[in-house]
Amino acid sequence: MSTLHTTTIGDGPARVVFLHGLFGQGKNFTAVAKAISDLATSTLVDLPNHGRSPWTEDHTYPALAASVAELLRELDAPVCLVGHSMGGKVAMRTALDFPELVERLMVVDISPAVGLGSNFGPFFDAMCGLDLAALSSRFEADELLRDGIPSDTVRGFLMQNLRHEMGPDGHRHWRWQMNLDVLRRELDGGIADWPVTDAIYDGPVLWVAGETSPYVREDAAPTMRALFPKYVQVTVKGAGHWVHSEQPGPFITVLRHFLTI
Fold first, then answer.
1. Is 241 considered catalytic here?
2. Are the C-beta atoms of 72 and 79 separated by less than 8 Å?
3. Where does the secretion signal sit in this chain (predicted)?
4. Which end of the chain has the least Cβ crowding within 10 Å, N or C?
5. How far is the C-alpha of 208 from the C-alpha of 18, rounded, in Å?
6. Catalytic residue (one of 42, 53, 85, 213)
7. What is the full DSSP assignment across 241-258?
8. pLDDT for 170-193, tens place per residue?
9. Catalytic member of 58, 181, 188, 193
10. Among 2, 57, 27, 68, which residue's Cα sits nearest to residue 161?
11. How far is CA 215 from the centre of its chain?
C-alpha cells in the first residue's frame, strides 16, 4: 500500500496524477485540478520528503519513480502523469520504468539532462540558517529569510513548508515540513542528475516549457527524442519556470487539449 499523501479533486472520466517540483506540495496544483474537474479525476501527490508524505534517505529518481508506481497501481491506471521540474523528472522516469502505468505524459519545464541544483542552493542556505528554536512568528521568519531569498513570491512559496505544530513535549514548535537535510544533500547529485537508462516510452508526451525559463534547452532535444519518440513541445509565452502558476490560463488550455486528443 502506498504511503504517499494524496488529495483527490474532481470526478471526470480521465485519471490525472500531478507531481510537484522541489520544495512543492501536491496542493500547488489545486487550481489546475479544479479547472479540469469536469474532464478528470485528479490525484495531487506529495512526493517523498515533501508535504505530508514520509521522509526517506533515498531521493534518487529510480526510487522516487518506484514510489509513484506503487501509488499508480492503486489507482485506475494507466493515467495521465503530469510532472513539474523535479516532479517532471520523476514523471519521466516513472513512464520509462513502468510504461504500463502511464497512458500519457506531460512534462512541465524540465528536460532529461543534468542540471537543476545551482539556482536552488541559496534557498537551502537561507532555510537551513533559520534558527527555528528562537523563532517567534511567521512574520519574523519572513523578515529573516528576506536577505537570502529577496523575491516575495519565492519566499512565500517556500514558507508554505513552515509549520507551527504541537510537539511531544506539549509545546508548539516551528519546523520545516520538507526533509531539508536529505534534499540539500541530494541537490547536486540525485536531484540535479539524470540517471542513464536505455528504456523508451512510446506513448504520447507533451513537453510544456516556459518562454523565459532555461530548463528545457535545445541541446537536450536529442535525448528527449531518443527516450520519448512521440513527444511534442509547447512553449508558453510570458512564463518562466513555474508555468502553471505564472500563466495558469494557457497552461490549463494546453492540458485540457492534451486530455482530449
1. yes
2. yes
3. none
4. N
5. 14
6. 85
7. S-HHHHSHHHHHHHHHHH
8. 788 999 999 999 999 998 778 888
9. 181
10. 27
11. 14
